[in-house]
Amino acid sequence: MAVSIVRRPVANAVMLILTFLATLLFHRSFADIAAGASTSEETPHRRFEYKYSFKGPHLAQTDGSIPFWIHTGNAIPSADQVRITPSLRSQRGSVWTKNKVNFEHWEAEVTFRVSGRGRMGADGLAVWFTTSQGLDGPVYGAADRWNGVGVFFDSFDNDGKKNNPAIIVVGNNGNLVYDHQNDGTTQALGTCLRDFRNKPYPVRAKITYYKQTLTVMINNGFTPDKEDYEFCTKVDNMVIPAEGFFGISAATGGLADDHDVLSFLLFRLTEPGQQPPPPESEIPKEEKDKYQEEFQNFQQELDKKKEEFQKEHPDVQGEPIEDLYESVNDREIRQVFEGQNRIHLEIKQLHRQLAMILDEQRRYVSVITDEISKKGTNAESGQVGMSLPKLFTAHNDNRNRIIISFISSSISLLTQTKRFWV
Ligand SMILES: [Ca+2]
Ligand SMILES: [Ca+2]
């Protein structure tokens, strides 16, 4: 089945709007009567599908494979992520579900990092739902002329329009050749500009296909809040193949980024009021035995490490072993954050001090100006100021003006500095 956008005639659109308004009015009055009616009626049922998902901390098995997934090209699975491409030139890699997914509605959550030392990176990362696994090819490391949909995280600005990094949705019925030179803009069904490279926290994409609408939500990786999603784009009336493989691919070019995927979680969505189908049948015995063995090995290894740890650190009791270690990425980010926090605190402190100095300087100026003006008035009225400080005698006037001018210019300088720090 091909991807297509259903175009409705204008008359239908008017009817739809009228129907929508009527429904809305009816719904409102109904809601008024049945106050407190649950909104959960509108929320689809969501079930996690482990056979089409992966995540750490034990993502890859000891033989380097990912349960229920295959990986190709330069992809390197490890315990807590899959490096789809390392940051080397001209790399391509991908991961694909072993089996086809045939859910009518679904939601995929992808957590990833695209990181590189360059101000610009390349080429990008793609999330796929296609009728066959695009194991290798020129479209972000996967095959061209795909049948299905691709959501592309395009880092490199091929057409030089300064509109990358960007996220675009491109559908294909198997005939389209991807327009790389224009960053796919001539074929995009939906797009949004988001800089997803080098973020302090992993970036998250939530791709939902529900009732023929594909929605892309993005968590831009600025906060640790996993649910901090923003709307990116939506494609209505989108028909995608009834069955397909999920995949993630990436490629580098002359410029290169690390493209790391920390997790891919798939959920089956079921319309409210409909019974979700029973979970899929048991996994084959062969695979089950393999996972069981893997699990036992892991358990033994863990017990051994716990024992060793407790022998070496008899004073640390009951602390989970995972919490005592951090990955290289975690450590780098923690160090950067600690450094930035210290700088931030220093700047705040400096800002406070500047504000105090400014305040004090302003008070001096106002006192001196007052005294001078008093002195001027006294001089005019012929009263020689016995009460004025010696500083303000006539021969000091010139010096006072110089002091005021000096303090005023300091104030102006300090104000500018303060603005700069803020
Ligand atoms: Ca591009
Ligand atoms: Ca571009």
UniProtKB/TrEMBL annotation:
Transmembrane segments: none annotated. It is found in: Endoplasmic reticulum-Golgi intermediate compartment membrane. Residues 46-269 form the L-type lectin-like domain. Coiled coil: none annotated. GO terms for molecular function: D-mannose binding. It is a single-pass type I membrane protein. One of its GO terms (biological process) is endoplasmic reticulum to Golgi vesicle-mediated transport. It comes from the Eukaryota. Pfam families: Lectin_leg-like. Keywords: Disulfide bond, Lectin, Membrane, Signal, Transmembrane, Transmembrane helix. One of its GO terms (cellular component) is Golgi membrane. InterPro entries: ConA-like_dom_sf, Intracellular_Lectin-GPT, Lectin_leg. Residues 270-290 are annotated as: Disordered. This is Lectin, mannose-binding, 1. It comes from Lates calcarifer. The lineage of its organism: Eukaryota, Metazoa, Chordata, Craniata, Vertebrata.
